[in-house]
Fold each of these.
Amino acid sequence: MAQYAIGVDFGTLSGRAVLVETATGEELASAVYDYPHGVMDQCLPDGTALPPEWALQHPSDYFGVLSETIPAVLEKAGVSAGEVVGVGIDFTACTVLPVKSDGTPLCFLPQYQHNPHAYVKLWKHHAAQDKADRLNAAAAERGEKWLARYGGKVSSEWLFPKLWQILNEAPALYADMDYFIEAADWVVWQLTGTLTRSSCTAGYKALWSKQDGYPDSSFFKALDPRLERVVEEKLFGPVLPLGAKAGEITALSASLTGLLPGTAVAVANVDAHVCVPAVKISGPGKMLAIMGTSTCHMLLSEKETPVPGICGAVLDGILPNFCGYEAGQSCVGDHFAWLIDRLLPADYRAEAERRGLNPHQLLREKAERLAPGESGLLALDWWNGNRSVLADVSLSGLLLGVTLATKAEEIYRALIEATAYGTRKIIENFRQSGVAVEEFYAAGGIPQKDPMAMQIYADVINMPVRIAGSAQGPALGAAIFGAAAAGREGGGYGSVSEAAAAMGKLKDTVYLPDKDHAAVYDILYTEYDRLHDYFGRGGNDVMKRLKALRRDVKGGNLPC
């Protein structure tokens, strides 16, 4: 009898599940559920306005993913729940929420439904930058050794700046919260009835390490005396390794999902990290870029080496027995969506409708006719701040070279090129630090549907680009971890690498660099690098001053 695993991927705007045959990796069915609340960055459901830089979600949407997508894939594939051996989930991170000791989110409680701090703080919630700045300054002044694992900077997107923001701005809510938890770990808790924390989310987003645990209480006390016991008070729960079983489907979650009680559930994972085994990467020197609204760059090494500006270096953080490195870009697909949503000319939109194309297809068609350098444009890819290597969300976008003759497709191509330059900057940063990057892989929505972008990436980084064999890379990866959690005795596999060998996949397509295009992009990248350092390393802090002025003028009174 065939056996299956289910992977559930919780993204920024939707959640999706995929049903995978464990013996072959064949994906039999997938289903998507759009979050009804989406990303709340203007106001709460009741109309309460949000200040700039906020990005929240509603945890009820996550229940919708479980109740809608899992039964849907079982029905589509004609597979019975008894044939499913394991379930894995992955999540955007750092996406965190305050809960009571029984797992109830504070935003579910009537007294907190009007308080923004009671909701899920999405990964791109950037309103805690001042807390991150103070945390980084204190860690550097104290010579905290763990800081080097994060490239010398802790991001405002991570757990402790967000938690500290709650303490400062909503101290009563902070006191009433029993735990602050990654949404990934919270969903696993809802499925299993047992609170666990993932070594991946803890390691990359909460400063935990396999060797030393969390930072010492004296550090938190130095930040704020009220934080001295923050780990003991708010981060309760054992940290479990990736590939392990967090627990089993309970009777309650079985009624929600249609799965059988006792089905194995894997320790939670992060959407980027979980993709590595999905493309059969099992060793060092192979970078995987998971490209969607943002991009995360995953890399394995046999040694832990300090690399400035990365998002973390965690032992066993991606695969066992390797140091897993993470870097990333905060805005990739969001760049292109911004152009279409805000600036696409009416005649372009009309042409797309007339020809039965979506706007991306039309702009891609027009942009493909352009040669590298032809537009005279150059952009910095910071529309949502810089994640690596500057780790500064106070930065913003830049488009240089615009004239009255500039066309929408030229801007579209320039934004794609900017994201490729950002990836090249990350690659060069690793190499300069002594961490090898010898091969490049791409997963996510953009590599699956945009050949032009992938060719631009190959030309800019001057490396072949290999493409994931699944359009649902994170969900496939989560299924692989689900199969490993089941274990051989449960119908799965004895390890993640064993499961990946059978279930992972790559396309035959490989994008090879064009040497003539690469030569032009070398020139353009040199200019990008100058702008990167001028605006990002203190040569001109105008971006930060403009953001500060915007905050002062608008304050918390944005129209909803």
Note: The CA atoms of residues 220 and 438 lie 39 Å apart.
Amino acid sequence: MGPVYRLRHGTASLVRVVGQPVREQALFDAAVILAKDELNVLEERTSGPQKDILMFQRLMLDDAGLQAQVAQRIAQGTGAAEAMELTARDYAALLENLEDEYMSQRSVDVLDVCRRVVNILDGEPRVRPELDVPSILVGERVFPSDLISIDRDKILGLATSAGSIQSHAAIMARTMGIPAVVQLGPQLLETMEGQSAILDAYNGDILLNPDTDAVRHAQRRIVTEGMLKKRMAFLRDEPCITKDGTAITLMANCSGPEDVGAAVQAGAEGIGLLRSEFMILNGHVPSEEGQYYYYKNCLEQARGKPLTVCTFDLGPDQKVDGIADTSSYSPLGMRGIRLQLARPELFLTQMRALLRASAEGDLRVMFPMITSPEDWRKALDLVEVAKDQLRQEGSPFREDIPIGVVIETPSAALLAGEILSDRCDFVCIGTNDLTQYTYVADRLEGRLSSYFTGLPPAVEQLIDMVMAQAWSFDLPVYACGVNTSDPDTAELYVRKGMRGLSMEYRSLMQIKARLLELDLEKQSVFASR
């Protein structure tokens, strides 16, 4: 609750003197160097997810495709600043059109870092906004650099007319404990500046010029919220043990280093799923060295907790350079391990990077979309090829790195006994795709969302089968999917005998609070486990 401060990110200068292409290219190169220096300074002042986001932006300035587009426009007579603006717009539009929300919101980072270069070229000052009093920040979008440059004590909350909860700024806001509301519409910017407001991030709204009753009600809620935060902070460090003494491992699903850091800070006991395909930007798969440093960075953010990486499972919106298979993608086509086995060079490069990173921390690997024992054996054989290559090169890696399987197809569930008997170290049940393929219900089709609520009967029976097989081989098994964030379904999993759950990290404390009150003395058929 407090006054509104309007964030203005400026517009292009009305008058720009454009020189010869050679001069404009030199100005652009110098501006990029200065921008990277500024980002380096900011990186040194931050840590955790904020540091990773700044590093991501700095690396964007080294992107060969981005630099080539700018250079091409400059060669055609466009000024350096305008060339950067146009290229940033193209890159941002490309990312925004991706179906995956996490990837689409990286467009904001492109706009943010390119804006820095444009401001340097235009001679615009890059100074942080000075807030006289703690305020609610409002803008079309809030960039990561806004949150880093403004004194945290002066930010009460933030509200945007566009944006997404998966944007880097929103992720940073969560890790910094800043209430945020996004996508309030363009009218937000027309009516709010200079007014007092109450921002309610739980209900996703903002109340302008509140009356006395609304202020009193908000003050009571703020006090209650403070007490709840203290309770949640206590829960974060408390082990998840039910009333009868059963320990449950609560892990998080993540998409990158910033998510890993936020999840650990939120109380995750490990990362049950790191979606590695989200490192692929603009169709370019990072080199082995680039992947190695990516995984190493994720391990650093995990702070000694186990990090489980799922190998590439490319979606329909991820067209990869040099791989024609993904252009005709369908949910029933070349997905997960099937595509990787068809393109072993892609799989071997990733496995080499993962194996090398395993020497840096508690890293585990699992294979997605296994459909048969043959898939599983072929993948394991390629792992041995990667290990032999690294041994010959003298590169250190963990020889006994845990390798697990993601059971997310009905065929894998039905053949779990054969799969799990062969060199398997752990089992992850991917309930989202298991539901999709069991009920022939596209996950992206909103009219079929009821199939993904709770635990549908057919999926429940398949999960029971997999759990029984995992226990027969004494293998740890955990569930991973949207429904693990639902308290009722999480409790059902635990009552069935599941001792590990992986979910979005924002749900961790809610699920832990539920399970701490659980008494498992009266169990189902799997009580003995």
Note: The first strand starts at residue 2 and ends at 6.
